[in-house]
Amino acid sequence: MIYQYCGHSGIQLPVLSLGLWHNFGSVDDFEVATQMVLRAFDAGICHFDLANNYGPEPGSAETNFGRILRKNLSGHRDELFISSKAGHDMWPGVYGTGSSRKNIIASCDQSLKRCGMEYFDIFYSHRYDGVTPVEETMEALIQLVRQGKALYVGISKYPAKEQQQAYDILREASVPCLLSQYRHSMFDRKAQLGGLPGQANDEQSNFQLAAENGSGIICFSPLAQGLLTGKYNHGIPEGSRAARSSGFLQTSQVTPERVEAAIQLAKIAESRGQSLAQMALAWVLNDSRVTSCIIGTSSVKQLEDNLATLHHLHFSSEELQLIDSIINNPQLSF
Ligand SMILES: NC(=O)c1ccc[n+]([C@@H]2O[C@H](COP(=O)([O-])OP(=O)(O)OC[C@H]3O[C@@H](n4cnc5c(N)ncnc54)[C@H](OP(=O)(O)O)[C@@H]3O)[C@@H](O)[C@H]2O)c1
User: Which is the CATH superfamily of the domain at 3-229+283-315?
Assistant: First the structure.
């Protein structure tokens, strides 16, 4: 495994982290989930990414991760870096969602209980909810650190303006933002590039802001939920995320344009001697500001395929130009 420092901090993370959004819930095979976590750990993936609502049912990924931890990794807590998040819909009533202090504090307590842990290594605000003042959310995160329930804090999917506000508030409280989590893949470069000047979304690049403020960047959905593996090149395979009713990838998102781009990209991957998934992960890691990318897997075989990315991370400028000529297409973006 390769490890990199998170922004201006003393924390290193593996360049590949494992996310438990899909495939670790109560509807999934617990034995497979256990094998994936243990294989990841053995391969040096010491960072596992959770959130209160991961499942389904919501919360069950944390419960399952807690079971795996107690049964198989109980002596290894200090070798692990475990995250959770709060902000999306979780429990009924007005306090079960959003970025209020009430939601963040109660969520963290619930998540710790489900995982059977005393603290999270990092706790995130899962989203800016568009209403709650950033001060309120950041003060809640700071409180978690002061109470010892989280060692570090992070933000996820914050728009540029609120992202900068969050960094300023956290820095002022001497609880700097360790990680900024954004969706990023060859099919979604908005966080990296920002919006185009003059367009409705003419935002600053989230990556640039994070780097300027000393925050590490961790990317999610680096394989565009599987679209960048080539698995949808001949239709929607049975059991795939797009085929599953609990999957977040909609069949309508498997468009002819994305499939065609995946076919073209797979040819470049082949010429590099790697799978499309491996090239897609290497491409995300090619941005030196990125600390780690969080992969999802539904089998140990996929995990092995993705781990082999580390054998070939380098790109020639010709390869990057060729990739750019394919992905520079607004129809591919989410
Ligand atoms: N902060 C946020 O708001 C946020 C949002 C989303 C995700 N996340 C985090 O990011 C993590 C990763 O997201 P993601 O699961 O969307 O990531 P992803 O890596 O883009 O997609 C993972 C899916 O791609 C398929 N796959 C992976 N490797 C493969 C391979 N080698 N060959 C064929 N198929 C392969 C599997 O789908 P199949 O089921 O089809 O096999 C797998 O479940 C999440 O678990 C979560 O921790 C955070």
Answer: NADP-dependent oxidoreductase domain (3.20.20.100)
